[in-house]
Structures are given as structure tokens and as C-alpha cells.
Amino acid sequence: MDKLTDDVPGCYYNRTVQFFYEHSGKNISAHWRPRDYVVVSLGMGVSVIVILANILVMVAIFINRRFHFPIYYLLGNLAAADLFSGIAYLHLMFHTGPWTIKLSKNQWFVRQTLIDSSLTASVLNLLAIALERHQTIFTMQVCLHSKMTNRRVVLLIALIWGLAIFMGLVPTMGWHCLCDLENCSTMAPMYKRSYLVFWAVLNLFTFSLMVAAYTRIFVYVRHKSQRMSQHTSQIRHKETVFNLMKTVSMILGCFVICWTPGLVLLMLDGLGCESCQVLRYEKYCLVLAECNSLVNPIIYSFRDTDMLQTFKRILCCLCRRGDAGRKDTLSGMRCNTLEQENMPYMSVCSNVVIILYVTL
After folding, report:
1. In this predicted model, what pLDDT tens digit does every residue of 43-95 receive, in sequence order?
2. CA-closest candidate to residue 17, choices 89, 98, 93, 91
3. Which of 2, 37, 53, 149 is most buried, taking the most CB atoms under 10 A from its CB?
4. In this protein, which residues make up the domain named G-protein coupled receptors family 1 profile (predicted)?
5. 30: Cβ contacts below 8 Å, ≥ 6 apart
């Protein structure tokens, strides 16, 4: 976007980032304020936790052959998207506040593209998991895992990332306001207001599809459990329905809590609400949306007993290696695996744990 030639009439290609911020009313402070320290510190803390939690999920899925099924591949891709989201948000924290004024327009668009692409990938993965569960429940009532082939999973994952990257690049490809200054948004001063409305509506539509899928799953399973309750105790029937309601409520509730404030702000800014003071809550809503990348591994993975056991094995290996110190070698370590796994799994676990330990 940065050009050395003269501006085209009606366009502002050669103006600085500060020019667009000042025009939109989003003034950049040259000095660090207490609010800036709070936002950056909170954002960095959340980003680091998001990165570590999702690395743990990805390693667990990689080393445990019990997780080599379509649903877990999608969970691993969700963890990868959330990991990318954590990295993108950490990058944002090092290019926000007073640092923003030093950015070129290209650097600003890269910063925004990383955020938009990562968050879009996370949302699309949540939708893919909801649709996979829906397909599994209604076509394979007995088996936990769908018949989706590995090829289809790879194609689905590629489609998710393709759409996410495309959505992140849309403003750079032309949906910006460098030649339409009057329609620049306040929260993203070089994005058109119409793009913010489009992005918010698209995510709300995605959320509605998730609600529809999980609601249909709940109604179906509740109906089946009522029929099965004729052959089982009433207590077990109530526990089944309650557990399903709890899981679905957590999934949808966390998504609503984390995303709704930010989407509402985007809608208000896109619609040109000048009295809404969107800038006052912008950073906090972005941190809240990022928190969804933290609760995702908790909801989808930590509630899985096998996944929890794998986490314990990984963390146990890390702790034992830390206690042993640099004097011990890999041959002196015993990396216990899941009780159901065989000896070949142990060597894979050991190698991955060493890589994870060095990385962390």
C-alpha cells in the first residue's frame, strides 16, 4: 500500500498511518499511559497461555494413536488456528499503543491480516467441528467416529485455511478506505465501515449455524435417550441429558461471551454510531475474543478423559526431565504412556516431549 508516487486524486496512498488515525478520531498517544500498560500486559499474558495450551493439545493428538480420527484431526486444526491466533495477538501487542505511529501502511495491514485470518480460522474450525458432530450423530448412531476419510479431512482443513487467509486479505485487496476517506471506520482506521459490518454479520451467521447444529443434536439425543430409558434406570437417562446440556451450554455460552461484545462493537462502528464510544471498549473486547482461543482446548480437549491422561503423561515427562537435570540422558528417562498403548508409542512420546521441553 505504501507508494512513492504522487497520490491519485481522491486517494491517500502516501499518507502515514497517523493521518488515518487522526482523521477517524482514534488518536495515537506518543507516550505510554496506564491503560496501555494494562492492555498490553493482559494481552501478552493471554497470548502466552493460549500458545502453550494449544501446543499441548497438538502434541497430545500427535503422539496418541487413539486420537488419529477425523474429529481429533479437526480438534488439532482448531488448536493450530488458536495457536496462530495467540501468535498473531502477541505480534499485535508489540505493534500497538505508541508503537502504532511507527508502522508503515504495509505493516499495519499485515498486523490486521494476521488477526483477522487467525480469528476467522478459529471460528470456521468451531463450525466444522459442530457439523462433523452433527453428521456423526445422525449417520452413525453407535460409533463415536465418522466415516470421513483422511483425504476429506485434509481438504476440509485446506478449505478452512484458504477461506481464513482470503478473509484476512480482503481489505488489502481493495476493501479499504484509502480512496474513500469519509467511510473509514473508527476501530480500524484504514478499513471501510462496510467491511466491519460484513465481517460481523458473517460471524453471526456462522454462530447461528453452530446453534442450529448443536440444538438439533441435543433434541435428537434427548429423544433417543428417552426411548432408551425404558430399558435403563431413570437416573442414567437424566445424567445423559444433563451432561449433553452442560457440554452444549459451555460451547455456545463461551462463544457468545467471548465474541458477542466484539461483534456488537464492530456492528456499531460499521453503522457509524458516533455516540457509542467504541474505542473505550475496543481493546478489552479483542482480549475477550482472544480468550475463546484459550477456552476452546479446555472445552473440546480437557473434558476428554483420554486427552487428560495424555496431558498428564506429557507434563509428567517434562517434570521428570526437569528434576533429573542436565546430567540425565534420554536413555535414563521412563516416559509412561497411556495404559492401553504399546512400547513403540513410548519412543515417539519421548522425542516429542524433548522438542516441547526445549521449545518451552
Report:
1. 888 899 999 999 988 998 888 888 888 888 888 999 999 999 999 999 988 88
2. 98
3. 53
4. 53-300
5. 98, 101
